[in-house]
Amino acid sequence: MFVDRPISKLFKIFSCFKNKISRNGLIGLFCRCKKIFLIIMKVSLARFVSIFNFFIKTSSFTATVPYSVLNTEILFLLWRSGLISSFFVEYNQIVVYLKYHDGHSAIKQIKFLPNLNKHLFAKRKYLEKTLSKQNITGFFVMSSPSGLVTSSESILFKSNFLGHIVLEIVI
User: Fold this and answer.
1) What is the Cβ-side half-sphere exposure of residue 41, based on CA atoms within 13 angstroms?
2) For 164, which DSSP code?
3) 129 or 27: which carries more pLDDT confidence?
4) Which residues in 94-121 are b (16+ Cβ under 10 Å) and which e?
5) Which helix (H) or strand (E) holds 46?
6) What are phi and psi of 18, to 5 degrees?
7) What does the pLDDT read at residue 53?
8) pLDDT more than 90, % of the chain
9) Measured CA angle at 150 (ends 145, 151), to 5 deg
10) How crowded is the C-beta side of 87, counted as CA atoms within 13 Å?
């Protein structure tokens, strides 16, 4: 599936045409494909968020979301944080078992932050200031070179961390 391919693999695919296409043409083709890839990724992520929020608001114990590698990584992050009970892949869908405490879902809402024209990047110092000054009940899901991480995990990194904010999880 085109959506699940990382950008580096796409560049390797297009680099095989190096002899047939000039370097500027190849870079232009790569940039156009990267933009198309980001748009497809954001649309599938927005669909995941809307479906997941629907199941949270209807107080369902199970949620069924479309399968993609990005969705499974986000669900694994939520499972590792203790916000969902479990999940498993069934054909082209993912079945998620939501966690409830005293009749209320552990997750109140998932907010999709990025805009198609604007990317939100955050350094570790910005996250420390934002999370300490504002009374945020939740965390951010960030895309980094090491994969998807939460904002609390990124604060624990000792290096100067830079990540692209993808989602906000409200607890």
Assistant:
1) 18
2) E
3) 129
4) bebebbeeeeebbbeebebebeeeeeee
5) helix 23-57
6) -55, -40
7) 93
8) 28
9) 100
10) 26
What does the alpha-carbon distance between residue 164 and residue 69 come to, in Å, rounded to a whole number? Answer: 18
- Long-range (24+ apart) CB contacts under 8 A made by 94-98 are 94/64, 94/65, 94/66, 94/67, 95/62, 95/63, 95/64, 96/52, 96/55, 96/62, 96/63, 96/64, 96/65, 97/61, 97/62, 98/55, 98/56, 98/60, 98/61, 98/62, 98/63
5-14, 105-114, 161-170: segment of lowest average pLDDT: 5-14
CB 70 within 8 A of CB 44: yes
Q: Which two tokens stand for residue 147?
A: 């994969």
Global pTM reads: 0.73
Structure tokens at 121: 């990047």
Q: How far apart are CA 99 and CA 55, in angstroms?
A: 12
How distant is the alpha carbon of residue 55 from its chain centre?
18
CA-wise closest residue to 83 among 72, 95, 73, 97:
97
pLDDT per residue over 94-124, tens digit each? 999 999 988 888 999 998 876 645 666 777 6
Query: What tokens appear for 52 in the block?
Result: 């997941």
Copy the structure tokens of residue 69. 């590698």
